[in-house]
Amino acid sequence: MKTELLPATGENIALAASLLRGGGVVAMPTETVYGLAADAFSGEAVARIFESKGRPQDNPLIVHIAEAEDLGLVARELPKEALALAEAFWPGPLTLVLPRQSRLAAGVSAGLDTVGVRLPAHPAARALIRAAGMPLAAPSANLSGSPSPTTARHVRADLDGRIPLILDGGNSPVGVESTVLSLAGEPTVLRPGFVTAEEIAEALGCPVALSPYIGRAPDENLRPESPGMKYRHYAPRAEITIIDGDYSRYNLILSKIILNSDRALQAPIYALCFEGEEAGLPLPAVCFGRAGDAASQAAALFDALRRLDALGAKTVYARMPGGSGQALAVRNRLLRAAGFRVMGAK
Ligand code: TXA
Ligand code: MG
């Protein structure tokens, strides 16, 4: 199959919408990461998503709507918390997990009685949902296991020849996937993102829990509420180790590793650090955002992981994204990319 990569103009959005109405899949830009969209009401279309990206069948998809009024097409119950959060954070990077409408294709929920739904802020995504005339199921548009795509070029690198069309809407400004919040019981963040637990708690006027699986390595006994949390994710080919501590500690540990490594390190070795730090390091470096600025780190992380792959990096030592709030999302993605390998904590 030939994969077209076209700018997200009105004409090309209309073309994409007709592919979607015919049961096809299309990659679309969103403000978080690019999504691989299909008709959420069609079992065959949804099956194509799983096939195109090699996604495990037990990992449910997020459904995207263009207007908050369409929430009822996707969710069969609308608790007042959902309406308050929709009002506060939509359009934007927050996914709500709610009881599902039976009309949705079964594959969307992967056997669960719930569905994740969000109203994206990217104008091209909303225009596409409107033009298609149906809610769109869309996971991130990467091959399963690799970093989520934040540019149309990233999508093409993973899915060339596997999907008919990629709409190019520029760089995804947020850069990490949406916050996933379950409203099935007590409000619980299943996946941290740009909308923080603190902001959600403030909008709801009640405490919000964090899933205990957010900071934990997957293991055999792990049965997270969000099935996606059990898979290896965001993983470039290099072996990444995160070094905990400030810049001087990072630099010191890097120098020690290089001078007296007790095992043969696979070359090439790279540092994954913050902007402006590269000149003082004993290794070639790739940067992801600025120290202490989680938004800039989120926007740059997945592209940095893909650049390390392109450079052929085999061993990578990364700076630890510190802080609370949005930094939790960046740390969570980097920890998963690193397979939870962390060193240097005092
Ligand atoms: O920002 C985003 O959320 C992007 C863009 C395209 O919207 N989408 C995205 O989808 O990241 P995906 O499929 O890569 O991640 C969806 C996550 C997975 O961890 C999945 O397990 C979880 O959401 N999820 C989806 N439906 C769920 C449900 N009903 N219950 C619990 N977790 C759910
Ligand atoms: Mg994904």
Detail the topology: elements first, then pairings.
Layout: E1 4-7, H1 10-21, E2 26-28, E3 35-39, H2 43-53, E4 62-64, H3 71-74, H4 80-89, E5 94-99, H5 106-109, E6 114-118, H6 123-132, E7 136-137, H7 152-159, E8 165-168, E9 179-182, E10 188-191, H8 197-204, E11 209-210, E12 239-243, H9 247-259, E13 269-273, E14 285-287, H10 294-310, E15 315-319, H11 327-337, E16 342-343
Parallel strand pairs: 1-8, 4-6, 5-9, 10-11, 12-15, 12-16, 13-14, 13-15
Antiparallel strand pairs: 2-3, 3-7, 4-7, 5-6, 9-10
Helix pairs in contact: 1-6, 10-11
This protein binds threonylcarbamoyladenylate and magnesium ion.
The site of magnesium ion has 3 residues, from loops.
Question: How would you concisely characterize the structure shown here?
Answer:
By secondary structure, the protein is of the alpha/beta class.
Q: Secondary-structure element order, as H and E? A: EHEEHEHHEHEHEHEEEHEEHEEHEHE
Percent strand equals: 15-25%
Provide the structure class. Answer: alpha/beta
Poorly predicted runs of 5 or more residues: none
| Strands side by side in the biggest sheet | 2-3-7-4-6-5-9-10-11
Number of helices: 11
Helix content: 25-40%
Largest sheet: 9 strands, mixed
The averaged pLDDT comes out at 94
Shape: globular
Indicate the multimeric state: single chain
Rounded to the nearest angstrom, the radius of gyration is 20 Å
- Which cofactors or ions or other ligands sit in this model? threonylcarbamoyladenylate, magnesium ion
How many runs of DSSP E, i.e. beta strands? 16
Q: Quote the distance from N terminus to C terminus.
A: 53 Å
